[in-house]
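Example 3.2
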Amino acid sequence: QLTQAIQAVQSGSLSYRKAAHQYGFSVSVLQRAMRQGEHEQALCHVYTSPDT
C-alpha cells in the first residue's frame, strides 16, 4: 500500500499531502520511503547497467 502511494506521487497524480491522506500515511513516512526507494533504484541501476 505504501508503494501504491509512492507510485501515485511519482506519477504526479497525487501530491504528498493527498497521497498521505488517501493511504493513511504521514507525509514524513512517504518522503522517507521515496528517498529510500530512489536510493535502491540508483543501486539497482548501477548493478544492472551493462559495461560500456
